[in-house]
């Protein structure tokens, strides 16, 4: 054999071996990169939108997204198969008004404790919220970015978080919780305690508001939250006060729009809400004292109503002044829900606004859905707590922290945030509000509870 021929054989063989090894490596990598699949069979699907379930369906999840929903068998290779046993598969619940960093932390503890203590409490509250079946929250003010990051990185369990960042309030407005002997920063140079702890921005005038808005956006706010009117829990402001001028609110709305997102407002009454809408605000975070004309305007202009069933008219952690304001809000709850039911184009979402409450009150979060039965059928309530929030989250646009698919619905391409529950929640809300009936909790394609 000539040397030249031997070399051809040698290098030809080596070349073939290299090609074979490369093919094996690529195939192995492909197998490793393939997203895990989960197949739910024999389930009735409430998709978050329609008032009838998809009967006898199968749902395939690949990775963290829903791939296929079919009443025909779905063929898979290597999927984890879960026989739903004729139960209902539905979207995870969405609370569109939370303060996850202060759910069970008393205000006195926030103002006086080591911040790490409050953080530990919020970690526990986040996990308990997820284990109640709440897979997504819109956080409406607080020191939230660190907790959100830890949840998203799977350091701790908790719901998805759409964060507003620090609450933006005017001097003497809602979330100005200074004591009478605390000074104003403008005159003393002393920053308010809640500002120092990164729960709030107490700011006045367009320049300060722009700085606060842009700082929240820099840190990853998916929406901006401002106080446009009085609050029942705040110690200094009348409930029907108008807060922030048109020019101030317009500056905030324009700055948020420049980043592709929107502004939501803490506000109850018509005058303040209409001023806010004039300024470009797209979501009303309470609205219990609204009139029909304002609600109809909101429906016509695509402004969401993200309200709460305030039917408990006195709270032990509040003083007499605040409880008197709460009673007024409470009286308006029935009126606004009844009117909203009669305006079909108005998008209404469910929230709880739990803050500074006891652990027992926090545990009743999902149970609050039952308060709505006075005005709505179970399917209408569940739509408020699932599919109605999809368009709200879409308004976050460029600042949406979860842009891969819709949230709040069971449809192809949506995030795999789902509950498997005993019974039919469209007929009996207890299928969801009794946590024992929630057999599987899945968020982002990962199962956090399984009692099948």
Over the alpha carbons, how many angstroms does the gyration radius reach? 25 Å
> Which word captures the global form?
globular
Overall pLDDT confidence? 92
Structural class: alpha/beta
Please indicate the percent range of residues in DSSP E strands (runs of 2 or more): 15-25%
Unreliable stretches:
1-31
Counting copies of identical and different chains, the oligomeric state is single chain
**Number of distinct beta strands:** 17
Task: Describe the fold and architecture.
The termini are far apart. This protein folds into two domains: 37-92 and 411-450, Urease, subunit C, domain 1; 93-399, Alpha-Beta Barrel (TIM Barrel), CATH 3.20.20.140. It contains 15 helices and 17 strands. It is of the alpha/beta class and 452 residues long. α8 crosses α9 (270-279). The protein has helices spanning 3-33, 107-112, 115-130, 145-152, 185-188, 193-196, 206-218, 246-258, 270-279, 292-301, 320-341, 359-363, 378-384, 389-394, 430-433, and strands at 37-45, 54-62, 65-70, 80-91, 93-98, 134-139, 160-163, 167-169, 200-202, 224-227, 263-266, 283-284, 304-307, 348-350, 418-421, 438-443, 446-450. Helices cover 35% and strands 20% of the residues. The strands form four sheets. It has a seven-stranded mixed β-sheet with strand order 3-2-1-4-15-16-17, with no helix packed on it. The radius of gyration is 25 Å and the shape is globular.
């Amino acid at each position: 054999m000539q040397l030249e021929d031997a070399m051809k054989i040698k290098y030809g063989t080596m070349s073939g071996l290299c090609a074979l090894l490369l093919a094996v490596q690529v195939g192995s990598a492909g197998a490793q990169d393939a997203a895990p699949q989960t197949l739910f069979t024999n389930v009735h699907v409430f998709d978050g939108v329609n008032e009838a379930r998809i009967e006898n369906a199968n749902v395939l999840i690949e990775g963290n997204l829903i791939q296929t929903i079919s009443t025909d068998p779905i063929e898979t290779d290597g999927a984890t198969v879960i026989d739903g046993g004729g139960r209902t598969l539905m979207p995870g619940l969405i609370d569109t008004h939370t303060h996850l960093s202060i759910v069970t932390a008393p205000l006195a503890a926030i103002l006086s404790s080591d911040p790490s203590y409050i953080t530990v409490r919020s970690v526990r509250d986040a996990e308990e919220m997820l284990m109640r079946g709440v897979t997504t929250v819109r956080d409406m003010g607080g020191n939230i970015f660190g907790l959100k990051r830890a949840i998203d990185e799977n350091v701790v369990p908790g719901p998805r978080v759409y964060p507003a960042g620090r609450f933006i309030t005017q001097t003497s407005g809602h979330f100005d919780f200074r004591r009478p002997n605390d000074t104003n920063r403008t005159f003393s140079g002393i920053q308010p305690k809640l500002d120092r702890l990164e729960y709030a921005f107490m700011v006045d005038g367009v320049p300060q508001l722009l700085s606060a808005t842009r700082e929240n956006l820099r840190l990853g706010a998916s929406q901006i939250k401002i106080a446009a009117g009085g609050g029942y829990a705040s110690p200094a402001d009348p409930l029907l006060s108008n807060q922030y001028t048109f020019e101030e609110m317009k500056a905030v709305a324009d700055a948020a729009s420049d980043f592709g997102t929107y502004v939501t407002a803490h506000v109850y009454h018509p005058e303040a809400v209409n001023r806010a809408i004039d300024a470009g605000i797209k979501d009303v975070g309470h609205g219990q004292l609204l009139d029909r004309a304002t609600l109809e305007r909101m429906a016509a202009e695509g402004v969401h109503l993200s309200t709460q069933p305030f039917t408990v008219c006195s709270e032990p952690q509040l003083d007499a002044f605040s409880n008197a304001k709460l009673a007024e809000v409470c009286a308006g709850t029935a009126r606004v829900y009844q009117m909203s039911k009669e305006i079909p184009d108005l998008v209404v979402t469910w929230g709880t606004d739990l803050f500074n409450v006891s652990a027992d009150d926090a545990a009743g979060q999902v149970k609050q859905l039952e308060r709505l039965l006075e005005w709505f059928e179970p399917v209408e309530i569940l739509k408020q707590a699932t599919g109605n929030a999809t368009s709200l989250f879409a308004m976050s646009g460029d600042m949406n922290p979860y842009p891969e698919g819709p949230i709040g619905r069971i449809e192809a391409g949506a995030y795999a945030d789902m509950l498997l529950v005993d019974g039919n929640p469209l007929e009996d809300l207890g299928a969801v509000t009794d946590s024992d009936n929630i057999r599987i909790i899945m968020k982002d394609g990962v199962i956090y509870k399984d009692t099948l």
